[in-house]
């Protein structure tokens, strides 16, 4: 059950609503979503009659969230788009933000080379995984904690905020002080305990769509994060398997648009995982921008043929520069 409070509701009235809720034996949590305040009720032991709160001043609306299609991210709760700030860089309405860097952090030299190149070409946020979810347990699994120092050095030397993947509580704790944006990968979209932990974090979160996940599943996964009080969520479309293309993915711009229509969250596209083939990255990146993405996440490696992960889909710094130039003329 969700109480939507009147806009600019004075503190005294909010306290009064909270006391009334507690008086009914329920718990409530105040959520700040943009300039809107909501009270999320829990602790029901019997069916709840919203009439019990009806005449209470300060309440705009009471919504039963069970079985309702209304989500905290939805436009029905509030019209304005959410703009997420990642170390001062904005993602969302009115901004087009490019995140770029290698799939994994490999060594300091390669990483700094990549970071300097993407910064020079105009990327606003650096990406690089130190905890890598890999299909094969024999593939490079990332540097783990040892990669943290490299990420910190990138931040120091380039001033770029960084995004890196978290897979569980340990990796989240490990990167928490360094990462400016926590990535929850496609494989973890259904990891509800991890989504709850990310919801408790005081850091923005980027949630990738799992291949085959429906829009409903994706948005409910985002809801796990918002429900814990973290509304700084960026959605990232990263493609789905295609029966027609054996070893490639298809970037689903339809689902990206559906997410933009239905939620106030920023939605970006990842044409690298969304195609898995470097020569398709630029056309699909431009297509995503044309379709209205709030930004892109692109894998860039100084020597893609030597990359320890996802080299086939990585752009070289020169190709990334071309992409940025084409985007610039395109977005003007
Ligand atoms: C990645 O960004 O390197 C990654 C593993 O992405 P995904 O979760 O989309 O596969
Ligand atoms: Mn990758």
Gist of the model:
The chain has 332 residues and is α/β, with parallel strands linked by helices.
What descriptive keywords fit this protein?
binds manganese (II) ion; four-stranded antiparallel sheet; eight-stranded parallel sheet; elongated
Q: What is the count of helical runs?
A: 9
Give the strand content. Answer: 15-25%
Overall shape: it is elongated
Question: What would the average pLDDT be, to the nearest integer?
Answer: 93
Going across the biggest sheet, name each strand in turn.
15-12-11-10-9-8-7-16
Bound molecules: phosphoenolpyruvate, manganese (II) ion
Succession of helices and strands: EHEEEEEEHEHEHEHEHEEEHEHEH
Question: Could you estimate the helical fraction of the residues in percent?
Answer: 25-40%
Low-confidence segments, given as residue ranges, are: none
Cα Rg:
21 Å
Largest sheet: 8 strands, parallel
N- and C-termini, Cα separation: 44 Å
Instruction: Tell me the number of strands.
Output: 16
- The secondary-structure class comes to alpha/beta
């Amino acid at each position: 059950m969700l109480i939507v409070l009147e806009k600019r509701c004075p503190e005294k009235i909010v306290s009064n609503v909270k006391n009334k809720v507690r008086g009914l034996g329920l718990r409530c949590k105040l959520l700040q979503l943009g300039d809107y305040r909501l009270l999320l009720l829990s602790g029901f032991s019997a069916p709840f009659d919203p009439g019990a709160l009806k005449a209470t001043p300060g309440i705009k609306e009471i919504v039963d969230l069970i079985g309702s299609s209304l989500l905290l991210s939805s436009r029905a709760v509030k019209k304005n788009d959410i703009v997420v700030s990642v170390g001062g860089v904005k993602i969302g309405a009115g901004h087009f933000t490019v995140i770029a860097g290698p799939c994994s952090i490999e060594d300091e030299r390669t990483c700094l080379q990549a970071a300097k190149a993407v910064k020079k070409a105009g990327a606003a946020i650096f990406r690089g995984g130190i905890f890598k979810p890999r299909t094969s347990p024999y593939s490079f699994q990332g540097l783990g904690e040892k990669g943290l120092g490299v990420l910190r050095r990138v931040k120091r030397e380039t001033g770029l905020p960084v995004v890196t993947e978290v897979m569980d509580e340990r990796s989240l704790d490990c990167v928490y002080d360094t990462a400016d944006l926590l990535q929850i990968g496609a494989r973890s979209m259904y990891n509800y305990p991890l989504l709850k932990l990310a919801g408790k974090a005081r850091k923005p979160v980027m949630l990738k769509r799992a291949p085959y996940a429906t829009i409903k599943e994706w948005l409910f996964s985002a809801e796990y994060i918002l429900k814990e009080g973290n509304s700084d969520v960026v959605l990232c479309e990263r493609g789905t398997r295609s029966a027609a293309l054996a070893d490639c993915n298809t970037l689903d711009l339809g689902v990206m648009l559906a997410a933009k229509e239905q939620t106030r969250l920023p939605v970006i596209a990842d044409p690298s995982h969304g195609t898995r083939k470097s020569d398709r990255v630029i056309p699909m990146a431009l297509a995503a921008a044309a379709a209205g993405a709030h930004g892109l996440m692109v894998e860039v490696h100084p020597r893609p043929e030597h990359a320890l992960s996802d080299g086939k889909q990585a752009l070289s710094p020169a190709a990334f520069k071309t992409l940025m130039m084409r985007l610039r003329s395109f977005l003007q």
